[in-house]
Specification:
330 residues; alpha/beta; eight-stranded mixed sheet; four-stranded mixed sheet; 14 helices; 42% helix
Amino acid sequence: MRYVIIGAGAVGGSVGGRLAEAGQDVVLVARGAHYAALRADGLRLTTPDGTRAHRLPVVDGPDALALRRDDVLLLSVKTQDSTAALDAWSARPVAGGGTAGELLPLVCAQNGVESERLALRRFRHVYAMCVWLPATYVEPGAVSAGGAPYTGMLHLGRYPSGTDATAAAIAAGLAKGKLLAPVVPDVMRWKYAKLLANLANAIEAVTGVIGEETWELVRRASAEGAAVLDAAGIAYVGPEEQAETRGENIGFDPSGGVERGHGSSWQSLSRGTGTIEADYLNGEIALLGRLHGVPTPVNDTLQRLANTFARERRAAGSMSVSELTALIDG
């Protein structure tokens, strides 16, 4: 089995690096300066074990890679980039005949719950992955992951539901690389729970703060999200089950030079990418709220504001908590 990591950023790079350390066959897919650095110097992965450089095959797109029948495509781009990636990879030929969309398993290792639907339009074999993996894109060619004793917990299952031998084989490979990968028949229940947690991403992105000062805003955004999911009849894992499952398996360990980084949305703003995933986090709640008649003023404002920051390339963390609160309440 060969893992093709489409989007070797913070999460994808951490997963790819850990797989490589465990002797798994890995190909990284990246763009721009990150691609150039990976080709020149390899992937530098910092974990509590220290920093290691991995010289792995790296390509800048599907045209540069001959796909094999034992490939697993692991999609870890931001959801706003999913459609372009899925279109590019699904039509690629696979050795022996057929296309990637017809033959290969595709794993959506992303925040939000939309990419799986997008993928299923193009791929016959889609798997969802709920990613609990604290990771940071440090600079081109370098990522860090501070989770310990395991680097991450990656609940995995078929989309929309179920399990199979392919999911078990993928999970077994991940487990060799300090990545817990429980195979579950209700993986979307885990992803909707993660969605509720990710509603705070926009708050951190625009204020730079996650802590006591923002707890009330986080609570309000999450309460709206839970009300919407309940109204829509969508099941999600509760905090007790999440805590029991993760237990002491994943905690932040600053050993080895790992620094506690900010969340993925803050990282998008700080890198000036011009896009942010708020449409598929707070925007998912806003969408479901409109479909089911539930007001979502907090998440509406967070979605709009995060997109404004990204579009105008405003600095991450440049709005005070009091300013944000006033905008939401106004």
